[in-house]
Amino acid sequence: MSYSTRQREVILEILQQSDRPLTPPDIRERASQGSAGIGLATVYRALKFFMAQGMIVLVEIPGAVPCYEPADRGHHHHFICQQCRLVFDVQGCVHDLEALAPRDFQVQRHDIILYGVCARCGAQ
Amino acid sequence: MSYSTRQREVILEILQQSDRPLTPPDIRERASQGSAGIGLATVYRALKFFMAQGMIVLVEIPGAVPCYEPADRGHHHHFICQQCRLVFDVQGCVHDLEALAPRDFQVQRHDIILYGVCARCGAQ
DNA sequence: TAAGAATTGAGAATCCAATCTCAAATCAAC
DNA sequence: GTTGATTTGAGATTGGATTCTCAATTCTTA
Questions:
Q1: In this structure, are B30 and B86 located in the same domain?
Q2: Relative to the CA of A17, which of A62, A87, B86, B120 has its CA 20 to 30 Å away?
């Protein structure tokens, strides 16, 4: 049995309303904008719970803190700003990536990560 | 001033002779095949030194221990085996990746990571 | 080969994300 | 509302990679 709690609802809503993947500290910070704060342990527990439910996915980018986003955003990739370190979604993909691997390697999935400067940082 | 030592020479040679990126423990293990062992701290210090010299590069793959390879291997990408967790080089690339990012984002570089099962693990 | 500077090795210490602890609070069902 | 199960929060703890410590060793130059 599992309960629906104010904290979990807030955490899920924050993830759904964000246009980019969020780190646990990001989530905690946003969740604490309102009245009561939320413990970091609670954020981690909720993320684990939603992951197990298949409602969110983990986004791991080298050089960035692991972050999370809703699982229903379709196939896409990520951009990380070298200045502010924020992770952004980028739509689209390319074909024939599997062809890069040696013939006797089985490719199950792929990630494309773009590194650069985001619009905000680029404008100073 | 910096000295050339047996340990650093061994470490660099191990990296150059490997056909895949190696982790610090990998390097230490291989360096200790011969007579004298090498301390892990020494491995980390040498890697830091070679990085500063621009002779090697860090390869970061989510889910894998950070590993290193010579900097002169040209543009390529990586494959990580989901079973043995080893990281392999894959040659080739695809074009127009920069086009995936929003127009006001500047793309400086990219990474492609393939996840799957390597030849050895695929053959049991 | 003498001397000063850099490096090494082993283990301790640090760092930091993630997990655990446990009493207090919250939830769902009756 | 009562009750028992689940969840929360704060801080302590863990785990694993990396760095630090410092005496001993190695290297370079002269």
A1: no
A2: A62
Here the CATH number for the domain that contains residue B98 is 3.30.1490.190
CA B101 to C1' C1, in angstroms, rounded, equals 64
Distance in Å, residue A33 CA to nucleotide C7 C1': 51
**Range with the poorest average pLDDT among A46-60, B11-25, B28-42, B104-118:** B28-42
Residue of chain B nearest A123, judged by CA positions: B104
Chain A environment of B117 (Cβ under 8 Å): 105-106, 108
Q: State the pTM of this model.
A: 0.90
Do A16 and A57 have their domain in common?
yes
- Region B47-64 average pLDDT: 95
- Does residue B96 surpass a pLDDT of 90? no
Average pLDDT for residues B46-54, to the nearest whole number? 97
Q: How many domains does chain B have?
A: 2
CA dist A124 and A62 (Å) reads 24
**Which positions on strand C lie below 7 Å from a protein C-beta?**
5-12, 17-21, 26-28
* Residue matched to tokens 């950070």: B66
Q: Which domain holds residue B16?
A: 6-72
Q: Is B93 annotated as a binding residue?
A: no
Return the SS3 of A42: helix
C-alpha atoms less than 13 angstroms from C-alpha of B83 in its C-beta half-sphere: 13
CA distance A44 to A27: 10
Which amino acid is located at A38 in the chain?
I
Residue B1 lies in a domain: no
**Whether residues B14 and B68 fall in one domain:** yes
User: What does the block give as tokens for A115?
Assistant: 């590194």
Do B105 and A112 lie within an 8 Å CB cutoff? no
Q: What CATH number did the domain enclosing A56 receive?
A: 1.10.10.10
Whether A80 and A55 share a structural domain: no
Nearest CA to CA, how far is A83 from chain B (Å)?
Answer: 12
Which residues does chain A have with pLDDT short of 70? 34-35
What pLDDT is attached to residue B34? Answer: 67
